[in-house]
Amino acid sequence: xxxxxxxxxxxxxxxxxxxxxxxxxxxxxxxxxxxxxxxxxxxxxxxxxxxxxxxxxxxxxxxxxxxxxxxxxxxxxxxxxxxxxxxxxxxxxxxxxxxxxxxxxxxxxxxxxxxxxxxxxxxxxxxxxxxxxxxxxxxxxxxxxxxxxxxxxxxxxxxxxxxxxxxxxxxxxxxxxxxxxxxxxxxxxxxxxxxxxxxxxxxxxxxxxxxxxxxxxxxxxxxxxxxxxxxxxxxxxxxxxxxxxxxxxxxxxxxxxxx
Length: 259
Fold this sequence. Notes:
This protein has 259 residues and is α/β, with parallel strands linked by helices. The chain contains 8 helices and 12 strands.
């Protein structure tokens, strides 16, 4: 079982509102299809970030901060769903049996933490050979009214139920940088002990879910909760990297709970 995230920075132009990188989406979908043809029995869950779609709209309406702006809540949902349609279409066009499972349809949050999400439909999709797709999305929050659940939060909730062996986070960065914001040295390994000494930057563009720091923390939570899980943060910009990652390559930064 593999969880693969296609980062918002990878599949959209984050400095251009609601602008997808359609050529990149098509290439990534092709790489996933190639990997599945190599290993037809691969159990794979794909998630994707919102990039210049949901993040931009959420920042405009303050959805991640809570409140009762329900018109804004619906606008953020529409924006995130628009990108999700493009991702699913690219996967289907590549010959993959992709089907969307939007978190907003069943998610319940409490103080920003995801406490409920429908798992059984996703499990059934995997059992039939379908390719389920999840995303960063809006959610109702018992404390704040509205919130945003990142793809990492969705993965972290699903991981104990679906027991993935690998978590692959593909973005535009080559991994976790040791010298942020210079970004020349990539860490081979990051553990809980490294969090205090690493300058984990956020996003250089609008990101209401926390950028790289959020990715690393949720990856650490997942590897701590799922025995044997290997997590990697790597670049999907170079053609072939996502295919190779699905087939077992070790590029980027490995995330482990450590001692």
